[in-house]
Amino acid sequence: EAPKNAFYAQSGGVTSVINASAAGVIETARNNKNKIGKVYAGRNGIIGALTEDLIDTSKESASAIKALRHTPAGAFGSCRYKLKSLEANRREYERLIEVFEAHNIGYFFYNGGGDSADTCHKVSMLSEKMGYPVQAIHVPKTVDNDLPITDNCPGFGSVAKYIAVSTREASFDVQSMAKTSTKVFVLEVMGRHAGWIAAAGGLASSEDTEIPIVILFPEVKFDQKKFLAKVDNMVKKHGYCSVVVSEGVQWPDGRFLAESDRKDAFGHAQLGGAATVIAEMVGNELGHKNHWAVADYLQRAARHIASKTDVDMAYAMGKASVQLAIKGHNAVMPTVDRISNKPFKWKVGMAPLSKVANVEKMMPKNFITTDGFGITKKCRDYMLPLIKGEDYPPYKDGLPKYVRLKNVAVPKKLKKFSV
Amino acid sequence: EAPKNAFYAQSGGVTSVINASAAGVIETARNNKNKIGKVYAGRNGIIGALTEDLIDTSKESASAIKALRHTPAGAFGSCRYKLKSLEANRREYERLIEVFEAHNIGYFFYNGGGDSADTCHKVSMLSEKMGYPVQAIHVPKTVDNDLPITDNCPGFGSVAKYIAVSTREASFDVQSMAKTSTKVFVLEVMGRHAGWIAAAGGLASSEDTEIPIVILFPEVKFDQKKFLAKVDNMVKKHGYCSVVVSEGVQWPDGRFLAESDRKDAFGHAQLGGAATVIAEMVGNELGHKNHWAVADYLQRAARHIASKTDVDMAYAMGKASVQLAIKGHNAVMPTVDRISNKPFKWKVGMAPLSKVANVEKMMPKNFITTDGFGITKKCRDYMLPLIKGEDYPPYKDGLPKYVRLKNVAVPKKLKKFSV
To answer: By the CB < 8 Å criterion, does A390 face chain B?
Structure first.
């Protein structure tokens, strides 16, 4: 009997290292051809599976797949498309199984965050019921770092490094201008519900390079008076101050600082603009000249300054997913299990999807200082290893050389299906 | 007779490589102790000279000065403080000469842009008149790349690299999300009057990595209808599109897209917000989901991704300034003279400050495509060599190790002077 093929798809917001996980999946499958046939990737994520738009990754050279390790974003296309509950949309789940069966797919590798873990779990359950069992493995990925059980989520370490490095650099800039010009710099970062990314701004300050930084976490209701006093105090003491504000910061009444009516495809409120609110406030109330930046996609696409630890973990999660599948596991996710901080040691673990799906890991309370504006030593000890090491991509003519795959389509066998 | 001391000051907005010029000045002076005594730096730029707040750079170790080469921002502090005309403010010019005389300073190295070149020129003229001749050398620096005569301005190449790399990375991100989510990404960049920095966004697209990019230059009056048609066309053709918008883009009536009432210390209108205007327009008029980023200080502080060419030039300009002074030159600025594009070759030249001061170099018309939204091959040929090469700083615990100097004050000899 010929080994079953595998299906791999990228889901949700991409990261600078999700392709490293893809490389881990594909290279490991290629090294186990007696167990796994071809790896088909979904064009634009799960939509590619639903519409039978599969990419034959066997058409890609070994060097192209290797180059995925240093290429940001989703090489096969990702999507924001959440499958509804089994009751509400059995049609789509059944279609997935139909496509998998038509292409002899026995392995489902889904590379995403919490929503995707849920989908992955459901596919595993339904396939069993339908008599075409598929081994579903979730490959963890999210810059939001909010998946449970795993020590951290591939994608986070690199965003954290980008934010820490950028905050340090901009702070050096402001410090040198503060005498006559800008005294407060405001950087808006991602993180809707959890302040993991904002916390990374705090890493910019270290024992040998102290920087006055005020962090605004989504976990801490915004107290304008306390905030302004803190900033003013920092400016008086140090001459300048940097503020790192999460897009998800809320007023005491629960409205976002950056409220807008726009929603993303998952129905989450789409944010942007907290930095301008904070900058104007600092200008109007304290009279301090200020500048603001919004990092937006730059932070999660910045492969040029990715964390080596993060890249290694992302690759390892992809690799482990295939190994778990080969060992016969189903409805699981490989995890990063931390063994020790100093020296930093970790190993690959495993979590059942039933315990991963739809659980959002918040920052521990003891990661935030009691005044609500900074990170504790505990947080620093947790986060520093994740930004450690550089893993520079190759360059050509001054620009990083990122790969674009051929993405050759697998011939279709089924009727059209519209999503 | 003991050799005269030198005065060095950083002026205006800092860059990721202005400290490399400082290293060039100080190391070259140290290598010529028979000609130049100590190098005193102005704390917070020219204000340090006026208030006799001088920093004794001889107190810094060789390794600290060497580390300036990889440290962004202004290590001695910069300032936005423009000396008025000689007629309007003779008091300040005379004070400068008084301070120079008190500290046996015979060389004035002023590291800045157009305004500083003007000040530098005036100091040279007045010192002669006042019978205490000072050799004034302007060390070119500005991310705006708008100084005349010199091929480019140190600081620009690194911003250009940051913008090109970031635009490429964010475009990969958008491309992979475009099927169900963001189709247009908008990045706002610096450049009040000249579109040099915005043009660098065009470098993100190359022959082997084509990316649909629309650039909005301050040189081209904003034509909303044409712009929206262009973006829509790109999205239809490629599925996505990136827009790089200069903060200085204006409506046909001359108002800035990002008009605000705030002004900087030189009286220039302070901008910020063009990206939100463009993003909202794309959303409302075309219905394309979009994201926007404002790079602000991140772009000019990003030493972690500095251009090696730029770092080398910045250092060379500092070094050449001292060499020109030793040769007896006065009221001049070293320049980058381009010899050839392929292979890229350049040498150090020299320009009289009378021809540099208050002249703003705009982008040549033939650098912008006829539709006004892109860069030509001429522009690309000019700009690509400037972003070439990487010059990574050393890292510690995942963060770049930037130096902070001791900045020991020189004992004061004069009465207090208020600015």
So the answer is: yes
